[in-house]
Amino acid sequence: MKIVDARVIVTSPGRNFVTLKITTDDGVTGLGDATLNGRELAVVSYLRDHVVPLLIGTDPHRIEDTWQTLYRGAYWRRGPVTMAAIAAVDTALWDIKAKVCGLPLYQLLGGASRDRVRTYGHANGRDIPELLDSVRARLAEGYKSVRVQTGVPGLQTVYGVHAGTAIDAAQLDQRALPVVEDWDTGAYLRHLPRVLEAVRSEFGPDLPLLHDAHHRLTPQQAARLGKEIERYDLFWLEDCTPAEDQRGLRLVRQHTTVPLAIGEVFNTVFDYQTLIDEQLIDYVRSAVTHFGGVTPMRKLFDYAAQRQIKSAIHGPEDISPVGMAAAIHLDLAVHNFGIQEYSGHTALTNEVFRHAYTFDDGHLHPGEAPGLGVELDEELAAGHPYVPAYLPVNRLQDGTLHDW
Ligand code: GCO
Ligand code: MG
Question: Which of 19, 36, 109, 191 registers the highest number of CB atoms within 10 A of its CB?
């Protein structure tokens, strides 16, 4: 069996997605997600100009060897662009192998370790009453665990409440620039305990609650926040610091028992080394799409399991249904599964990417279709071409750039 074609398809059914489609001489096709939100075209070039020529004529069954060739063979290793490109190839090859076997991918990963995959959804509000309504809406949709984000008094826009990079009409003039949001760490630290108090008193002690600090705090600030919110029994506090300095998490860990989740912007296992070795976190958050694919995710989870750390694959709207499907197969198979983030996609996105996975009663299942179980409608995709779009940037009130 040989790879005879590999094409990169960019489509924007409401937001941009980058998909690699690999075809073999037997006519079997595989899909991989390479969407890097706000930097999509860099990955398109990396794939088209530097990866596709290396794939043509090779054996699609040699997944590990292809991964090592793309990772080590480039000499220049790691980084989000490289690892998103490798992820797309790896995922597409797993899709092909599973289709050839006539099995859903999870069967090749060891089979199901559970019957269904628990998820959490997003509740957002400009203020606390709007947030409480949003939690009610998620519960009505079936979610059993909810991430809560609100606006902070005195700030115009806050992570989770603003639109992110969904494409709006103003961006269709093709000159989109990042939206500038504002930030005040003190105001946020004072506000969050009140938010959690309100949510707990409305919904009681049993509802698993999550919160994403979105890389905004220093280790000292995160340690203080963790102590203050311990009594609200969070399922986790996410990305409390940027974690580029992994040692910073030692300070947070020494001061609080709040479970910590980190890793959505990481792209190799080396970003986790201190965090896992010293058990400084409880959940690893990487996405198949940004971490080099199914192969290294499986290795990451096995490494994390040695320190009783669980999986929590990143699953926002900017992971395409192809990346989501790969995540759900892993979730069903790995023993140390924790939870799966699931925001869902627009109806149009689900038409462009028809998928076998289902969401029911707050749980996902990958379905039983061979491979990943996702088909890309290329004609429909072509009707929704790429639109330039950026994630916001964040500035303190004196204008200093801060982490978003
Ligand atoms: C999450 C994330 C996302 C990111 C987004 C960036 O926890 O889901 O923080 O909302 O901001 O994926 O592209
Ligand atoms: Mg996050």
Answer: 19
Local structure of 358: helix, strand or coil? strand
pLDDT band at 157 (very low <50, low <70, confident <90, very high): confident
Mean pLDDT is lowest, of 42-56, 171-185, 365-379, for 171-185
In tens, the pLDDT along 265-307 reads 999 999 999 999 999 999 999 999 999 999 999 999 999 999 9
As beta bridge partners, residue 33 has 19
- Name the CATH topology of 108-369: TIM Barrel (3.20.20)
- Best probe residue, ligand 1, of 120, 285, 318, 339 (max atoms within 8 Å of C-beta): 318
188 is catalytic: no
Name the closest ligand to CA 159: 1
Q: What is the mean pLDDT of residues 248-277?
A: 98
Q: Where exactly are the structural domains of the chain?
A: 3-104, 108-369
Q: Which atom of ligand 1 is least distant from the CA of 319?
A: 12
CA atoms within 13 A on the CB side of 363: 11
Mean pLDDT of 14-21: 98
* One-letter identity of residue 104: P
Q: Whose CA is nearest to atom 1 of ligand 1?
A: 316
Q: Is the CB of 181 under 6 A from ligand 1?
A: no
User: In terms of C-beta density within 10 A (0-12 exposed, 13-18 middle, 19 or more buried), how is residue 91 classed?
Assistant: buried
- How far is 84 from 323, CA to CA, in rounded Å? 11
Q: Which CATH class is domain 3-104?
A: alpha beta
Global pTM value: 0.97
